[in-house]
């Protein structure tokens, strides 16, 4: 049996597994969404009941029946949508730059143990620095614009991408690699047909974690330093404009919905692209 035939057989097996598991993954995804909606409804009802007790001034803690209609208004408000796009642009640009750095480096560190041990002290030191702690330094160097937000996103998202890529490479079935070598499969073909397909599930897990972390930090940075645009800027401006608690809470709710949608999209894409795998990792 030739090397190409062996690799095609392995690819065909993965394709059959993917077709068998796709319907089950779709049902699990729908069940997860329904549970999430039910949980959100329960939280909204509890919040409504507590706000109606008026333990806190209603001008500062409006009920859910005031916040949710305001959130629907913001969904069609062009000024708010512009701020959402500003935050998303910073997040996606920073995430793309982080992937350019983390994926090749993760492939190298995952493949060569000596290199990983040599880089471990520096990587662990930088990874331990909280992203929020870097914001004042970035403001001094870059100001309060897009460059600062993109840089902080790169700093906090590079680690889940890097470590999940490393874990993905290290989790490759050594028997499959040795089999490819025994058939004298070229190194590049081994990487393309054996190593990368096995590493992709954990790499996509890293992407999902990086998206959530990046969104949290970029909005926090917009609030902390008073940037010129973004969801955090919108929340900060509304909080300084008088008793606009309904607008502040509505913007926070929509930021949470945005994070939920991004997580759901990446999870659905992962289930479709790598339906044969159920592996995951945390950074």
Give me the secondary-structure topology.
Blueprint: H1 3-52, H2 64-75, H3 78-111, H4 113-127, H5 131-142, H6 146-170, H7 174-182, H8 187-225, H9 231-239, H10 245-273
Helix pairs in contact: 1-10, 2-10, 3-4, 3-6, 3-8, 3-9, 5-6, 5-8, 6-8, 7-8, 8-9, 8-10, 9-10
Can you give a write-up of this model?
The chain is built from ten helices and no strands. With 283 residues, it is mainly alpha-helical. Helix 2 crosses helix 10 and helix 5 packs across helix 8. It starts with a helix and ends in a 10-residue tail after the last helix. The mean pLDDT is 82.
- Please give the alpha-carbon distance between the first and last residues: 40 Å
Query: How many strands, what sense, and barrel or not for the largest sheet?
Result: none
Which stretches are poorly predicted, pLDDT < 50 over at least 5 residues? Answer: none
Number of strands: 0
Shape: globular
- Determine the structural class based on helices, strands and strand pairing: mainly alpha
Radius of gyration: 23 Å
Helix content: over 70%
Strand fraction: under 5%
Average pLDDT figure:
82
**Secondary-structure element pattern, one letter each:** HHHHHHHHHH
Q: Helical stretch count?
A: 10
């Amino acid at each position: 049996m030739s090397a190409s035939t062996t690799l095609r057989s392995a690819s065909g097996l993965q394709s059959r597994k993917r077709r068998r598991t796709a319907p089950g993954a779709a049902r699990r995804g729908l069940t997860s969404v329904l549970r999430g909606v039910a949980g959100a409804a329960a939280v909204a009802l509890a919040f409504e009941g507590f706000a109606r007790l008026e333990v806190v001034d209603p001008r500062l803690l409006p009920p859910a029946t005031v916040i949710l209609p305001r959130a629907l208004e913001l969904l069609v408000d062009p000024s708010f949508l512009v701020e959402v796009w500003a935050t998303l642009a910073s997040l996606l640009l920073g995430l793309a730059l982080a992937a350019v750095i983390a994926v090749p480096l993760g492939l190298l560190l995952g493949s060569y143990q000596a290199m990983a041990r040599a880089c471990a002290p520096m990587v662990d030191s930088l990874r331990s620095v909280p992203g929020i702690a870097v914001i004042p330094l970035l403001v001094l160097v870059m100001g309060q614009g897009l460059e600062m937000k993109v840089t902080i996103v790169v700093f906090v998202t590079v680690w889940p991408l890097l470590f999940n890529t490393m874990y993905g490479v290290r989790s490759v079935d050594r028997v499959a690699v040795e089999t490819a070598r025994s058939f004298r499969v070229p190194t590049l073909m081994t990487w393309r047909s054996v190593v990368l397909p096995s590493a992709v599930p954990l790499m996509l897990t890293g992407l999902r974690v990086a998206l959530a972390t990046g969104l949290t930090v970029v909005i926090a940075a917009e609030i902390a330093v008073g940037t010129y645009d973004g969801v955090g800027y919108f929340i900060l401006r509304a909080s300084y404009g008088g008793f606009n608690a309904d607008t502040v809470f509505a913007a926070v709710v929509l930021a949470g919905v945005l994070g939920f949608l991004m997580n759901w999209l990446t999870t659905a894409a992962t289930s479709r692209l790598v339906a044969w795998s159920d592996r995951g990792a945390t950074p």
